């Protein structure tokens, strides 16, 4: 009996030490031990989806060869106006940091961290001009950590597209 109480006490102390270290060091530094939170650039044209269910893709069918979870709508504004509207969407989101902008191909990359544990996800967004002054975009969201994401990446893309449709008119 005393043996098991000793084991429980040791496990409890180890867990408390881990929680204390997490609080003192902070989640950003803890998760950076597993690699950089920014997972880098991607090419939508040659994107290979992950074999694990911890990413989501919203992409026009003519751009991506990978299977898209969501096909983004066509917007009745230019790609540059869509990009401006998207910046309002990002401003409305919590715990988002812009980590890269490529003006040449209108691509932006963000890190969004989860509220409780600070898990980092990388989101790449590309804005695309379409005929007659319209535009669309492609979004790829993927988690740095874990095998699954409980649908967080897909929910993010859906939420961002829903907010974007309130900022820029969707073409009929």
Q: What is the topological layout?
A:
Blueprint: H1 2-25, H2 27-32, E1 55-58, H3 79-91, E2 96-102, E3 107-113, E4 120-130, E5 134-143, H4 152-167
Antiparallel strand pairs: 1-5, 2-3, 3-4, 4-5
Helix pairs in contact: 3-4
Describe this entry's structure for a reader.
The chain is of the alpha+beta class. Helices cover 34% and strands 23% of the residues. It folds into 2 domains: 1-33; 36-167, Kinase associated domain 1, KA1 (TATA-Binding Protein, 2-Layer Sandwich). Strands 1-5-4-3-2 form a 5-stranded antiparallel β-sheet, covered by helices on one side. Strand 4 (120-130) and strand 5 form a beta hairpin. Helix 3 (79-91) packs across helix 4 (152-167). The model has no long low-confidence stretch (mean pLDDT 91).
Taking the alpha carbons of the first and last residues, their distance comes to 72 Å
Quick check: average pLDDT? 91
What percent strand?
15-25%
Assign the CATH architecture of the largest domain: 2-Layer Sandwich
Query: Helix and strand string, N-terminal first?
Result: HHEHEEEEH
CATH topology of the largest domain: TATA-Binding Protein
Strand order across the biggest sheet? Answer: 1-5-4-3-2
CATH class identity of the largest domain? Alpha Beta
- Structural classification: alpha+beta
Instruction: State the CATH superfamily name of the largest domain.
Output: Kinase associated domain 1, KA1
Report the major sheet.
5 strands, antiparallel
The helix fraction, in percent, is 25-40%
- How many domain regions? 2
Rough outline = elongated
